[in-house]
Specification:
single chain; 294 residues; alpha/beta; five-stranded mixed beta sheet; four-stranded mixed beta sheet; 11 strands; binds copper (II) ion
């Protein structure tokens, strides 16, 4: 853990992140840790703080701070470019949380970029990239998640400091609670409009962790079974029990007891019933709900 803050290790992480490979990140980090004490080994970083699920927020912030420093930009600006580079990775919602938590002055300075990206045409990151439209469109479209992260950051500003464009955005906040001891959410069904900006807040007063995934219509059992299978191996915890499937559309990572998880996303364009599910092993059969897009 201590190692992650040193220049050598941050360097290794940065190089690895450019290669967009978590495995490479961990290999690179391992090879660069010869100076680590044996005490630090058991406490070693478990993955790439800019890509992987099971990484402490402090480590993500440390890595982003190093990038910002070396590029002489704000942490907000560094975080936004990592969100764009990460797109479908397991760290993206945490990175969006970090972006929204940056000082108002930094978010204000970044606001024109945030607005531009929020208003860019949409690239559906759930589709095969080879089927993306023309080259031009690819250069000027943001993924749905990047757009949501930009809107979230703008709405983190006090209302009177938001750019005027934000007045046209109408985020819908859906609040729910993990009912203690019941393996259920209350409420567990929501209705939103296609393409609306949605913020789900899950309060967790339960004694155990829960996550929440938004999945493709009809995929509840497939994702649930895959999550239970993931739970049998060490990789499951590393992925926070999120199956690697294109049918997983949005991810709110594991939310600790007595905390509130937050996930902003753009609702699917297609109407339908999208399962909400907690994929902590054994939870999915009871802990599921519905996001109705209509
Ligand atoms: Cu759960």
């Amino acid at each position: 853990m201590k190692c992650i803050h040193c220049a050598l290790c941050i360097g290794a992480i940065l190089i690895a992140s450019k290669h967009s490979s978590a495995q490479h990140a961990s290999e690179t980090a391992n090879h660069s840790h010869e100076h680590a004490t044996s005490a630090a080994v058991s406490d070693a970083p478990k993955g790439n703080p800019l890509r992987d699920a099971e990484v402490a927020q402090t480590e993500r912030v440390a890595a982003l701070t190093a990038i910002a420093k070396s590029a002489s930009i704000s942490i907000a600006a560094a975080t936004l470019s990592e969100i764009e580079a990460c797109d479908a990775c397991l760290a993206r919602n945490d990175l969006a949380t970090i972006l929204a938590a940056q000082p108002a002055a930094d978010l204000k300075a970044l606001a024109p970029t945030l607005v531009r990206k929020a208003n860019e045409s949409t690239k559906d990151s759930t589709k095969d990239s080879t089927k993306d439209s023309t080259k031009d469109a690819a250069n000027t479209s943001a993924s749905r998640f990047v757009k949501a992260a930009c809107v979230r950051a703008i709405f983190a500003l006090p209302e009177n400091e938001r750019p005027t464009e934000a007045a046209a955005w109408k985020p819908v906040t859906l609040k729910t609670t993990a009912v203690p001891g019941k393996m259920s959410w209350d409420p567990k069904e929501f209705i939103v409009s296609p393409n609306s900006i949605v913020a789900i807040e899950m309060n967790n007063p339960d004694s155990m962790q829960h996550n929440m995934l938004v999945c493709s219509p009809g995929s509840l059992s497939e994702i649930g079974v895959a999550a239970d299978k993931l739970g049998e191996g060490a990789i499951g915890k590393q992925r926070q029990y999120v199956p690697d499937s294109p049918k997983v559309l949005e991810i709110m990572g594991l939310t600790a007891p007595n905390t509130t998880g937050v996930l902003w996303f753009i609702a699917p364009a297609k109407t339908g019933t999208y399962p909400l599910v907690c994929t902590y092993p054994g939870h999915w059969r009871m802990m599921n709900g519905k996001l109705k897009v209509q």
